[in-house]
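Bug: token stream looks shifted between consecutive jobs. Job 1:
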Amino acid sequence: MKKLMNKTAVVTGAGSGIGKAIAELFAREGANVVVADLHPEHIDLVVKAITASGGKALGVVFDVSSETDVARLVEMTLKNFKTLDILVNNAGVMDDFMPVEKISDELWNKVMGVNLNGTFYTCRLAVPIMLNQSSGVIINVASVGGLFGTRAGAAYTASKHAVIGLTKNIGFMYAKNGIRCNAIAPGGVNTNIGADMKPDSFGMERGMLGMATMPRMGEPEEIANAALFLASADASFVNAAVLTVDGGWTAS
């Protein structure tokens, strides 16, 4: 039997990479999937792939750092599917390995706006819906950068540490209300998140010290499999946890 039959899942940053892999896997497992992303051309491709395979998908163009856009995303989800059972906060941006003394207000606010504020906005609106139905799952895609200090620059590292803290708080607060909230901390994964990156030379040099022991890069589908586990009843006793999916990188 399909693990997410008749569930409705919102996946942010679902137009490519990890988000795309999660959206397509969840659809194969029976979920109605809301494909939310900033890029309409990417959304269209994912929605078409899902529907061509017999799944149900709704595309929503939105900016996760905009509180207004997030409210519209949730409104459209409820209008089309009547409920919100699974929320996957995957949208994220990097910070060019920028050390703290070189970070501009613009870069800081951009990284925090997407990685942290967006996660907060979606959770704030999803939790009341889940409380009303006495069930729900939230999965926040964090990073091993949220566990250690040498995987990115200061802004990204701070944002992902904050996402993990938010995850643990939400999971604990609503543990008796049928809501589970967990985080995935991926290691290096082959996505396009760093496609436009122009890394700071000093920050990259220091960051590479943390990269040296990585066994291999992961694939988006490997992270999606972890997300499916957390979204399904198989993880019914997993809450307020951080699932590290990094091929053993952080064991060194």
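Job 2, same session, no restart:
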Amino acid sequence: MRYALIAALVGILSLVIAGEPVLLFNGKDLSNWHAKAEPKMGTNKWTVGSPRLAADTSKLDITGPEGAMVNPAAKHGDSWDLYSKESFGSCRIELDVLVPKGSNSGIYVMGEYEVQVFDSHGKAKPGPGDMGAIYGANPPPVNASLKPGEWQHYVIDWQAPTFDAQGMKTGNAKFVKVELNGILLHQNLEMKGPTPGGVTGKESSTGPLMFQGNHGAVAYRNIIITPLP
């Protein structure tokens, strides 16, 4: 009981001294985002609108002018990744994601550490490439995925790596917590290095938020980042 109370007080204190939340996407345009050019792939197809599953449930239709960041890529290699102009260190990331049937994306914290986004609904035992996995590092312990076309909610508490004055790393990055649809998937998962496919492939004290866009259709909305101490 005593330790539970201490943990609760620490959590409350962390929230009190956290920075101001940043709404990273305004629901109207992509002015705060860069496309990561892929010369050997298609073209940047990210746009803004109201997505829903198409008649072909592996694709997305856009029904309105505002609301979400939508990548209507028809197949692997049809579009590009997208990353924020702003950079962050330790932070809490909250967002909604919509995945069509069989599609694949990823949330790259600081542009380098991927939380997998994948249509894994109904899979009995999720693996390292399924929804909620830390790609290449740790599979989710349970399948928390909703059906294709439903909005799903991630909460990611992140601790950035630390460096000394000479640029030498003094502490590894850590996924303090990863929740999907209210279910805890990872806790205090230390990262010795970045996962594949990031913005630079290198670690630093801050970095952008990146969404993988070169693997299929996906949509994101309600993207809030709260800096943490």
